[in-house]
Amino acid sequence: LAGSAVSTPKYYKTIIGASIKSIVEGKLSNDNARIISGNVLTGKAKTLKGSLDFYSNIVTVIPEGDDYELFGWLKPVFNKISPSRAFTFSWLSSKKEYDLNTNTNGEHRAFVVTGNYEEVFPLDIFPMQILKSCMYKDLDEMEKMGMYEVAPEDFALTEFICVSKQPHQQIIREGLDLMLKEIG
Q1: Cβ distance 77 to 88 under 8 Å?
Q2: Which of 35, 131, 135, 160 has its CA 20 to 30 A from that of 168?
Q3: Cβ distance 80 to 98 under 8 Å?
């Protein structure tokens, strides 16, 4: 059991499919929190009535980001993380720890080319081009760009830093499913 909304994170010995309620009950420091079966980047949101997924070995609990800031994009901020460090002044305190929540600080928009994906992507391929080829369902382009070498989890960090708020893992999953259906 881990996460910033847990009062005492620790290890538990449990069984596959254990009740989420039995794991987190009485251990949360914040009632307004999101419970995730798995890690923050690739896990699935659960409720107290849910159960631990088969392949998950962690339950993560982080604050729910349901607080919104009017014209938040307009002013400089000091308490948010940014890969580009634009308008955040995060370069002033590089050792600062952030208490991240589920708020995306924006809404879904068209792809913005920043070059940040390549900096965090774990493989030596072009993530932006693969994502675009998956979106317009070009199987030949997907093959050329290295689609056989990727998994949705590889795109977890690119999804986290995406200024466009695109669901990268979902796009890749749909692209892989399309390739399996069409090519075999």
Answers
A1: yes
A2: 35
A3: yes
pTM as predicted? 0.73
Q: Where are the alpha helices (DSSP H) in 12-155?
A: 20-24, 116-120, 127-135, 139-145
Mean pLDDT, residues 48-56: 90
Tokens of 25: 């009950």
The beta-carbon contacts of 119-124 under 8 Å, at least 24 apart in sequence, are: 119/83, 120/83, 120/157, 120/158, 120/161, 121/154, 121/155, 121/157, 121/158, 122/154, 122/157, 123/149, 123/150, 123/154
Residue given tokens 């307004």 in the structure block: 32
Which tokens in the block code for residue 157?
């960090």
Question: Beta partners for 5?
Answer: none
Cα–Cα separations (whole angstroms), residue 82 to 69, 162, 183: 17, 10, 39
Helix, coil or strand: residue 126: coil
Mean pLDDT of the chain: 85
